[in-house]
Amino acid sequence: MDNKLAMDEITYKINGCAMKVHRTMGNGFQEVIYQRCLEIQMEREGLQFEREAEQAIYYEGIEVGSRRADFIVEGKIVVELKALVTLEDVHLAQAKNYVVAYNLPVGLLINFGAVSLQFKKVYNKKFQ
Question: pTM of whole model > 0.85?
Answer without folding.
Answer: yes
